[in-house]
Amino acid sequence: MTTRLLLISDTHIPGRSRRLPDAVLREADAADLIVHAGDWVAASVLDDLRQHGDVLGVYGNNDGEDLRAVLPEVARREVEGVRIAVVHETGQKQRREERMDVAYPDADLLVFGHSHIPWDTTTRRGMRLLNPGSPTDRRRQPHHTLMTLELADGGIRSARLHSI
């Protein structure tokens, strides 16, 4: 069995976009699980994504009390034997892998956001760190981005960054 995940973060709606891009909605429909690593800004984004599938998400530093009331700071779920943790911020990039190994010793995969910069590394102990960037606010990046992930047999079968 393979489980397909959509990873997004930092949608900043309505400040950076009026709505989720069509590419995000298409990937959400194709996913078994939608993971959002915070900075939704509008609670309506959570409602919209829930119409497309199962959502695992956290609040970010730009999210208000409405989202903080229904989303955790850190979310966890095991999927296909992969222990997933989701958080908005991980701090500066220097020594990130070392810090996250200590902070999330029971995770195989950590999905995070905040920087709007795509990130894909593996820590010394083997935890995968993924930041999907932003589908609506590319900042200094060349493209808006999202990630898709396939999990199977207790591991990550594939991780792909998509420019949209």
From TrEMBL:
Record-linked NCBIfam families: yfcE
Keyword Metal-binding: yes
Protein's recorded name: Phosphoesterase
PANTHER family named in the record: VACUOLAR SORTING PROTEIN VPS29
Signal sequence bounds: none
Keyword rRNA-binding annotated: no
Taxonomic lineage: Bacteria, Bacillati, Actinomycetota, Actinomycetes, Micrococcales
Annotated family: Belongs to the metallophosphoesterase superfamily. YfcE family.
InterPro entries to which the protein is assigned, alphabetical: Calcineurin-like_PHP_lpxH (IPR024654), Metallo-depent_PP-like (IPR029052), Phosphodiesterase_MJ0936/Vps29 (IPR000979)
EC number: 3.1.4.-
Cofactor: a divalent metal cation
Species the sequence originates in: Microbacterium gawkjiense
Limits of the Calcineurin-like phosphoesterase domain: 4-153
Gene3D superfamilies: 3.60.21.10
Key words, A-Z: Metal-binding
Top EC category: hydrolase
